[in-house]
UniProtKB/TrEMBL annotation:
Belongs to the fatty acid desaturase type 2 family. This is Acyl-[acyl-carrier-protein] desaturase. One of its GO terms (molecular function) is stearoyl-[ACP] desaturase activity. Keywords: Fatty acid biosynthesis, Fatty acid metabolism, Iron, Lipid biosynthesis, Lipid metabolism, Metal-binding, Oxidoreductase. Binds 2 iron ions per subunit. GO terms for biological process: fatty acid biosynthetic process. It comes from Actinomadura viridis.
Length: 313
């Protein structure tokens, strides 16, 4: 996107950012991470405190919930990289800067509460978790589409909703009411963040429909969760998908389609030229993704049937 267009968009959209920030602040509820953690379950670990080292028997969570919580937490841990990336796109001045700082402060709570929960309940190996955090953060974070405002805003519109879905489903799979309540609280934040970005990009569609449509298509076709750089992410993502926490069907039906429907991208009459080409590409890609999701569901159901049959023998 030409720098002149990006600059104009940023100027034209600042009143929208201010309005959406006010709306966000009016809807966001103050909450405190320490109130969502079962501190009474905690005890000292080995090391300087001379407590008990972690063992797998300490965890009451199943593998699916553990792996998803680890991915969710390591993703939240990379917040410094996300803050830098979003600040490079949105800037640090005026309403843009105020939003970036507010978003960062709210996101930081998510990492705090999830780590405290995992540590206190001994749900995961704290040594392995810390080593994974160090490795992941040392790898750093780079936005796929650089400093393009339209691409950045499109990405977070989908990513915040994807994160909400992943948190809520992780809580449900955990079998722990405390974990489910905690992640529902985190997911509520993510939903408000999604609404902010979704409304911002809707306004961009009104100003620059073709350029915005191209950005949306590029992001949908290249979409990866921000934690894709986590060591062992592919194996973890397979476990998460097989558990129905986050899979292709959820990505297609519960993330992409609702946001695209809200923007009305397939109903707009003001999209022409490359924007129209991008829209055709998007429709084709969604069809392919839908077919892939169906094949994955069929294979998963067949696998579950085989496992159930073996268990019944």
């Amino acid at each position: 996107m030409p720098e002149t267009l990006q600059t104009k968009l940023m100027l034209d959209l600042e009143p929208v950012v201010a309005k959406e920030l006010d709306r966000h602040l009016s809807m966001a509820k103050e909450w405190f991470p320490h109130q969502y953690v079962p501190w009474s379950q905690g005890r000292d670990f080995d090391g300087p405190m001379g407590g008990d080292g972690w063992t797998p028997e300490d965890s009451t969570l199943g593998e699916e919930a553990r792996e998803s919580l680890i991915v969710n937490l390591l993703t939240e841990d990379n917040l410094p990289g996300y803050h830098r990336a979003i600040a490079e796109v949105f800037g640090r001045d005026g309403a843009w800067g105020a939003w970036v700082n507010r978003w960062t402060a709210e996101e930081n709570r998510h990492g705090i509460v999830i780590r405290d929960y995992l540590t206190v309940t001994r749900a995961v190996d704290p040594v392995a978790l810390e080593r994974a955090r160090m490795h992941h953060m040392e790898e750093g974070y780079e936005a796929t589409h650089g400093t393009s405002f339209l691409h950045g805003a499109a990405y977070v519109s989908f990513q915040e909703l994807a994160t909400r879905v992943a948190h809520r489903n992780t809580g449900r799979v955990s079998g722990d009411p405390i974990c489910e309540r905690m992640l529902a609280r985190v997911a509520a934040d993510e939903n408000l963040h999604m609404i902010f970005y979704r409304n911002l990009l809707a306004a961009a569609l009104e100003i620059a429909p073709n350029e915005t449509m191209r950005a949306i298509t590029d992001v949908v076709k290249d979409f990866q969760m921000p934690g894709h750089g986590i060591e062992g992410f592919l194996r973890k993502s397979v476990i998460i998908a097989n558990a129905g926490i986050y899979d292709l069907r959820l990505h297609h039906d519960d993330v992409l389609n609702p946001v695209l429907r809200n923007w009305g991208v397939f109903d707009r009459s003001d999209i022409t030229g490359d924007g129209d080409k991008a829209r055709e590409e998007l429709a084709e890609f969604l069809g392919q993704l839908d077919a892939m999701a169906t094949r994955f569901e069929e294979r998963r159901e067949a696998r579950r049937a085989r496992q159930a049959a073996r268990a019944a023998e």
